[in-house]
Design goal:
Helix content is 43%, strand content 23%. With 129 residues, the protein is of the alpha+beta class. The two termini are 28 Å apart.
């Protein structure tokens, strides 16, 4: 897919995930468009995906929630980051997520891609007529 995705991996039983849910929802409402999409994965139901992305889902894990940015199907960023096998402390506040993923610039780039592609499509339609 050509869309950029911001995916939150969460567990329904995790207080940190429950507290983060409204923030992720708000960001989704503010920043999503045709080229920038938001999604959630319940690691309790989709443990295979959590394992694929190396997210520890134990009750002692400091990796829940984990938010991963995908561009063209590839992971390009995540919070909390893992450096030399250690989970880095991250505060899941709205402004911290916006800053960590540079959402304002990402949103603008994705919006501009949509606007740039639209006129090309119309020009192509005229050529085929």
């Amino acid at each position: 897919s050509k869309a950029t995705w911001l995916i939150a991996f969460y567990a329904a039983w995790s207080p940190a995930c429950i507290n983060f849910a409204h923030i992720f929802s708000k960001l989704s409402n503010e920043y999503s468009n045709d080229k920038l999409k938001f999604g959630k994965v319940d690691v309790g139901r989709f443990a295979d995906l959590a394992a694929e992305y190396h997210i520890n889902t134990s009750s002692l894990s400091r990796q829940l929630p984990t938010v991963i940015l995908f561009q063209e199907g590839k992971e390009v960023g995540r919070v909390p980051a893992i450096v030399q096998g250690k989970v880095q402390k991250f505060f899941f506040k709205e402004e911290d997520i916006v800053h960590a993923f540079d959402l304002n610039n990402l949103y603008a780039k994705c919006r501009d891609k949509k606007e740039l592609q639209a006129p090309a499509t119309k020009a192509e339609d005229k050529k085929t007529q």
